[in-house]
Design a protein that fits this description.
alpha+beta; 8 strands
Length: 604
């Protein structure tokens, strides 16, 4: 057990090191700063409690450059260290970890787990007067998370609580700049949440003008621009658009200059709305196309704001009688809603599509829009048996195949509450589907308590796609950990849900099987069979990959050789994936350097 004085000195050293770096630089400079911070704090990492605090600080660097998977991993590790530690000095750091987990999961569209961590943070902050200062930030995150979960009344309540608490803290000490900034941000968030819900009141403009005045007074440029953007949204929604266009276009360029690209897209969208409201449809369409091009250039096509961009363009094209194009934009908006799991976006697209064509609108709710892309072979292969053709439709491709199975699912159902277990498994499978899609794969089929997924390489094996499927497996294991955390914390269940994963890479056939009575599209090949066999050989929370996959990912993973005996194949060399390598662990020879203290078990 580390003594309090040693902890205090270590924490002071960590904070001084952290403050010596700037977050206002480019992505590469911020990552250089992260390396510098790691170097300065390396001597403190041997003390677990200080290591957890260092991990929390490192996560802030990674959030700034939008590398949320690694941030999430560091926070998980920090929570494992601090979760059962009752040292009073560490409670605020444990709370910071929970809040950051809420933020990171929200950023990754994992709203259910974000809500779990934030509610744990809320209970912790409410139970300790020394932690009351964190309540405003927690309420702010809960308001947006509950909006995305379509719990509008909760979202509104949390935004109101944030405004009340931040206002009280501000009026208690108007000279405290962090309190002043928090109050101004609470005014912006209050207006934003109510606008998104559809509850817009004239007095909210006064709140935003107050926030703008505060940000100007304390020279908080980022807050000022965000407050002006929200006021522009408010004016657009209430048809006060005299100067809104100029403000939106000016903000768009400011945000681009600052590298705040999603905010730049939102400002551009306000301009599109103004053009629409003034019946300048040609400029609205032109600006919309410009935004889509900008998003593509900066790889932001799947950002939340793009669902709104596509929907607005759908409305505009419908207004000029271009119904086919309108449906296309509504479909893309609905698809993004499915990817992010936001019901309100899907329903909005459905309702507006129904005005044009109720049959095509119905497809938005029944079609698998997430996977209906031409780049996937299954969407390019004929899916019916033709009596006028002798040959069946089939395509040979290079791909990585993943099989995933929930371990001892029947036993879990027997010894636990069935409804609760089904709820958790449903949440887990839903999360797995989104993780697979984010890594450019797709679900081929559900296998009872498991899934089979395909990651297409194309004509030849590609290292990046092999790495994608490995990253996907590691993300799934972390998602599993979060569901088990919820089982324990929320439901008091003392056993875990576990999965095992098998991955293989090689040539496979996309083929239609069956006859006129029953047909099924599937994938066949030795690589598919091997992935299935590897999954059965894997232990709980283990990822086993074949030689081909391991060869493609090279020095970008840390693994342990795992000889396995596979029925029908014999002794085969597989590789148990431990984690991704850090840049400092890679060598030019292609073999990763395994740190001396590296545990060979998967992270859990």
């Amino acid at each position: 057990m580390t003594d309090t004085i040693q902890l205090e000195r270590g924490i002071k050293s960590i904070e001084e090191s952290f403050r010596s770096f700037s977050f206002m630089d480019s992505r590469d400079k911020i990552l250089e700063s992260l390396s510098g911070f790691e170097h300065l704090t390396d001597h403190l990492q041997q003390i677990p409690e200080l290591d957890a605090i260092i991990k929390w600080h490192k996560n802030l660097f990674l959030q700034k450059v939008f590398y949320f998977p690694r941030a999430e991993q560091l926070l998980d590790e920090a929570l494992c260290i601090l979760e059962n530690n009752e040292e009073s000095l560490l409670q605020s750091w444990k709370l910071r970890v929970l809040i950051s987990l809420g933020y990171v999961h929200r950023a990754r569209c994992n709203y259910i787990d974000a809500d779990t961590f934030l509610n744990d943070a809320l209970k912790m902050a409410q139970s300790d007067p020394s932690l009351f200062r964190f309540l405003g930030e927690i309420y702010s995150l809960l308001s947006s998370t509950n909006f995305f979960l379509h719990y509008n009344s909760r979202a509104k309540r949390y935004a109101t609580l944030e405004k009340e608490i931040a206002g009280k803290r501000y009026h208690d000490d108007p000279s405290d700049q962090p309190r002043v900034a928090s109050y101004a941000f609470s005014l912006v968030n209050f207006s934003r949440i109510h606008r998104l819900i559809g509850l817009i009141q004239p007095e909210y403009a006064s709140d935003l003008e107050e926030a703008i005045g505060i940000f100007r007074q304390i020279n908080h440029e980022k807050g000022l621009n965000l407050a002006i953007l929200e006021l522009a949204e408010h004016h657009c929604a209430t048809n006060l658009i005299d100067n809104t266009l100029d403000i939106a276009l000016s903000l768009e360029q400011t945000f681009i200059k600052e590298g705040m690209y999603p905010e730049a897209i939102q400002a551009g969208l306000v301009a599109v709305k103004v053009f629409h409201k003034t019946y300048n449809f040609e400029q609205a369409r032109k600006k919309g196309a410009e935004i889509i091009g900008f998003a593509g250039t900066h790889r932001l096509e799947s950002e939340l704001v793009m669902a709104d961009v596509n929907h607005e363009l759908g409305v505009i094209h419908y207004a000029v009688n271009e119904e086919r194009k309108a449906i296309g934009f509504f479909r893309e908006s609905a698809r993004l809603g499915m990817v992010m799991g936001i019901k309100s976006i899907i329903v909005r697209a459905f309702n507006d599509s129904r005005v044009i064509d109720k049959h095509q609108a119905a497809e938005l709710l029944t079609s698998d829009l997430v996977y209906e892309e031409a780049r996937f072979v299954r969407n390019r292969v004929e899916r019916t048996i033709n009596p006028f053709k002798e040959s069946r439709s089939k395509v040979k491709i290079s791909a990585s195949t993943m099989f995933l199975d929930i371990v001892d699912f029947s036993a879990i159902m027997m010894r636990s509450d069935e409804d609760l277990t089904v709820k958790m498994v449903d949440e887990l499978i839903d999360r797995i589907c989104l993780i697979i899609y984010f890594h450019n794969g797709y679900i081929d089929k559900f296998l009872g308590d498991g899934v089979m997924a395909i990651f297409e390489h194309g004509d030849s094996p590609k290292p990046d796609m092999a790495l994608n499927i490995v990253k996907c497996g590691l993300d799934i294991l972390r998602a599993l950990k979060h569901k088990n955390y919820k089982l324990k914390k929320v439901f008091g269940v003392d056993h875990n849900i576990d999965v095992r994963i098998g991955i293989s890479t090689g040539d496979i056939y996309a083929i239609l099987l069956g006859n006129y009575i029953k047909t099924e599209f599937t994938y066949l090949g030795n690589s598919v069979n091997l992935a299935s066999k590897l999954e059965k050989q894997a232990a709980s929370r283990m990822i086993l990959v074949d030689d081909k996959t391991f060869e493609l990912v090279g020095n970008r993973v840390i693994s342990v050789p795992q000889p396995v005996q596979i029925p029908g194949i014999g002794k085969t060399m597989a590789h148990k994936i431990i984690r991704l390598t850090r840049k400092t662990e890679r060598t030019f020879s292609g073999t990763p350097r395994i740190p001396e203290n590296q545990n060979s078990r998967p992270e859990s």
